[in-house]
Write a structure and sequence with these properties.
Elements (H helix, E strand, L loop, with lengths): L10 E6 L5 E5 L4 H14 L3 E4 L5 H12 L3 E4 L7 E4 L23 H8 L1 E5 L12 H9 L3 E4 L3 E5 L8 E4 L5 H14 L3 E4 L5 H12 L3 E4 L3 E5 L9 E4 L4 H13 L3 E5 L7 H10 L3 E3 L3 E5 L11 E3 L12 H9 L3 E6 L6 H11 L5 E2 L4 E6 L7 E3 L3 H11 L6 E4 L1 H7 L3 H7 L3 E6 L1
Parallel strand pairs: 2-14, 3-13, 9-10, 17-18, 21-22
Antiparallel strand pairs: 1-22, 1-23, 3-5, 4-5, 6-8, 7-8, 10-12, 11-12, 14-16, 15-16, 18-20, 19-20
Helix pairs in contact: 1-2, 1-3, 1-5, 1-6, 3-5, 4-5, 5-6, 7-9, 7-11, 9-11, 10-11, 11-12
This protein binds uridine-diphosphate-N-acetylglucosamine and phosphoenolpyruvate (PEP).
């Protein structure tokens, strides 16, 4: 047995229930903010210093892909979370990016490739196996810019439009985060104004707009529209930006503290980014507060409300982020009430998580592939379970903190795609987690 953080995919995490979690912990930078920021840096074609870049596997993959595209990527030797992205001049041939098939966010590289090669050829993206994950809206975006899109069984090929585009207006049929960022980055490469109607209004999209403002673009975003106007001429110097703290890691840690009825301060996350999850905590009667840069959970001796929680993932502005849902489900399993959960955004997520929770003894009624209902509180009993996607993995670790006996979670490769080291942060709060050979 070892407590080393350097584990291989063949190993597993063993979690035992113990004392309530207490203390202070800091989240890493957000994977889902860092990935589009890296692509935005590439699309801008400027020297960009990014700080607070998490060292999770998906970010490592993205950095490797950028290198293969020709970008100079340097990590600070004193602080590996500081990354410098150096622009490239035009390339003739599009690179072969086979590893792009292992992450969902490789689709964010299309605009930068159109800028450097005039075309992008990429395999279908991977990422969490959470059901059908379309890209049709991305292709509509590129076609709105006049680009040609060709599809085949292995991937997609986008050819940049021949002429220059003056201004583009796109209405998204639904609020896809990926397609919203694709439209924004495509306009950056074109250097043209963009009006995007019915955009995704998540913090990750707002972060890209803020980053571009820092680069001199005139940007506006509300629930109904995003608009961009390129900067006038002038010298484009280097740009420094900090990746925001990981809101999903913060909510996962908050749920871990709450299930153990502990008391902790989670630092490094914007309050607004976790607000929908904080509302769920308040509804259940778990005192939790998001301040400027911290989430504080005080679940010792709490009076639970017994109110039924309705946690339905939504792409609507202010809606519950789908990635919060799995750990909130584990929290609700331990609190009184008849709770309803739904995630139709990632239609395979419940199929990944619920059978694993059932192995721990949870009684969950699956109303459909994407909706379920259950009564709390329930007592869980540890056994061997599998992390089938990032958030199912972190939720199973949270479940293990209260399940009687030992919960062994395998499938660490999924977990490590999204978190640099979640077990270490939980250990810092007193959790009994070890890394065992599976
Ligand atoms: C790398 C990254 O940041 N991943 C996040 C991103 O995923 P993802 O990029 O999949 O999210 P989108 O918001 O773009 O898409 C939501 C869903 O809409 C569908 N869709 C999307 C685009 C499209 O062109 N056609 C289509 O059908 C897919 O089934 C997809 O799963 O946002 C999700 C919430 O929205 C999060 O749960 C993911 O963690
Ligand atoms: C679903 C997720 O990631 P991806 O979209 O990269 O698969 C996630 O971050 O939970």
């Amino acid at each position: 047995m070892t407590t080393s953080s350097a584990v291989s995919a063949a190993e597993a995490i063993a979690i035992r229930p113990g004392e309530p979690l207490v203390g202070t912990v800091r989240v890493d930078g957000s994977k889902n903010a860092a990935l589009p920021l890296l692509a935005a840096a590439a699309a801008l074609s400027r020297l960009v210093h990014l700080s607070n870049v998490p060292q999770c596997q998906d970010v490592r993959t993205m950095l490797a892909l950028l290198r293969q595209c020709g970008y100079g990527i340097a990590r600070s030797t004193t602080n590996p979370e500081e990354v410098v992205i150096q622009p490239i001049s035009a390339a003739s041939e599009p690179p072969e990016l086979a590893d792009a098939a292992s992450i969902r966010a490789s689709y964010y590289l299309v605009p930068a490739l159109l800028a450097s090669c005039g075309q992008a050829r990429l395999p279908w993206p991977g990422g969490c196996p959470v059901g059908e994950r379309g890209m049709d809206l991305h292709f509509r975006v590129y076609e709105a810019f006049g680009d040609q899109v060709l599809l085949d069984s292995v991937g997609y090929h986008v050819h940049r439009a021949a002429g220059r585009t003056r201004a583009v207006e796109i209405t998204l049929p639904f609020r896809s985060r990926g397609a919203s960022v694709a439209a924004i980055l495509r306009a950056v490469v074109e250097g043209c104004p963009l009006t995007l109607i019915q955009p995704n209004a998540s913090p990750e999209v707002a972060e890209i707009l803020a980053f571009l403002r820092g680069a001199g673009w005139d940007t506006y975003g509300d629930e109904n529209v995003v608009s961009l106007v390129p900067p006038g001429g002038g010298e484009a110097g280097s740009l420094a930006w900090e990746v925001p703290g990981d809101k999903v890691e913060a909510v996962t840690l908050a749920c871990a503290v709450a299930v153990t009825r502990g008391c902790a301060v989670i630092k490094g996350v914007h309050a607004a980014d976790v607000q929908p999850a904080m509302e769920a905590f308040a509804w259940l009667g778990i005192p939790a507060h998001a301040g400027a840069d911290t989430v504080t959970v005080q679940a010792i001796d709490t009076q639970l409300t017994g109110q039924p929680l309705r946690a339905i993932a939504s792409l609507s502005p202010g809606g519950l982020d789908a990635d919060f849902e799995p750990s909130l489900m584990v929290l609700a399993l331990g609190t009184p009430g008849v709770h309803l959960f739904g995630d139709a955004i990632n239609p395979g997520r419940h199929g990944n998580l619920i059978p694993q929770l059932a192995r721990l003894g949870a009684a969950i009624e699956q109303l459909s592939a994407t909706h379920c209902r259950f009564s709390g509180p329930q007592r869980l009993v540890g056994t061997r379970v599998t992390a089938n996607d990032i958030r199912s993995g972190s939720a199973l670790i949270v479940a293990g903190l209260t399940a009687a006996g030992v919960t062994t979670v395998k499938g660490l490769a999924q977990l490590r795609r999204g978190h640099a080291n979640l077990p270490r942060k939980l250990r810092q709060l007193g959790a009994d987690i070890t890394v065992d050979v599976a």
